[in-house]
Input
Amino acid sequence: MRTAKTLLAAAALLASLSTPAADLLEVWRAASQNDPDVALAQAQKASADARRDQAKALWRPGIELSAGTGRMNSSSAMSGAHFSAPGFGQSNGVDFATSINSGNATSWGVGLRQPLISGELSARRDQLLQAAGSAEWQAQLTRQGLILNTSQRYFDAVLCDQRRNLLQRQLQAVERSLVESEDRFKLGDAPVTDIHEARARFKSLQAQVMDADNALQLAMAALREVSGMPSLNLPLAMPVAEVVSPILHSQEEARALALSMYPGIALLQARVAVAEAEVRSLGAVASASLDLVAQASRQHLGGSGDFGSASNDSRQQMIGLQFRMPLDTGGRDARQKEALLNVDQARAALELGRLQVGQQTRSAYLALETAPARLQALSSALSAANSRLEATRLGRSVGDRTTLDVLNAENEHTAAALALLQGRIEVLQNSLRLDALLGRLDETSISRVNAMLTSKPNV
Output
């Protein structure tokens, strides 16, 4: 059984060595074709184009066609009329009467209206254009979010894999310590407490390894889902030993750029503009409009009435200007008050967004600025932990250190190695976050980070 396990482990090792490590750029390109957020961003972009078309259509002429038919009763009576006609002379007090009972009525009309001046249409056009801009900013935010989420899931899987590997190495070392403690106890060279301490640490590490393996499986499943790469397997490329992220601007320059270039701020500004346009559309001046109108219509009614067969035929044609000014729109004041409150709310959201973006930019900037010193300190801490572990093992062999000292030194070494890897990952993620805040996060940013990954373990 032990021989079979050894052969399986060797086969797995050879397979991992023959398979090149997947890198971040490869995963991102797959995710950019597969993730549902891609379709969402495309739909948001399409909605922006549709809203611009709507804004243009507001000022185009509207044409209306109407037609109707039915049964109709009609009667008219006139008395005291003055009548004159060639050959009939003149008469006063003349009566006229016509009637049609259940006659056939038909009508048709066609009209054209071309807006010339309209404050309401102007405001609605501004709203649609700002809404189109909002959709584009939202699409850019969605794409940036996909990049950050993909990189975060990738590095989560890298960290989980390394944590499991380090814990497995620590478990093997503790297992050796347990065997050594048992052998030394049999020889009378070590107390029984060494066996208990080593066994307790061994069981604890077994549980930690299982937890780490579960976390790794979940991280890889999430990465496979977002990338659409069901065959994606370990190993993944890891950060190089010397990750760097050059800062191109001062802190205040970066903050000013973020406030002017971050898509989230532009989105909030567009929402303020939409709310302000709504207020304008509800103003008294906006309700007035001047249109160029042209109409042609005909109404015909024919049938029999009280005086015999009769028919009425009416034709109209008109072209001119029409001015409209509603005097009471019913509830306009209440709607305008609500619109003003919405403007206040949008402006407050914009100010809050500016504050948050400024803080996020400062945080990412400072993290990158202090990254070299922090990584140097973490690297020194790992070197110190490695030296302490070797010295403690040597001291244990000559009786100057206990088994518990060795176990603690191994635990500190694992923690230091994970802290260094986490520090390197944070540098790369912070560089992507800063690019996002500056409005320049794209595949070029991914390529820059990917260049600082390696398939060779360095922790």
In short: The longest strand covers residues 89-118. DSSP finds eleven helices and six strands in the chain. Strands lie at 62-85, 89-118, 238-239, 289-305, 308-324, 453-454. Residues 258 and 438 are 5 Å apart (CA to CA).
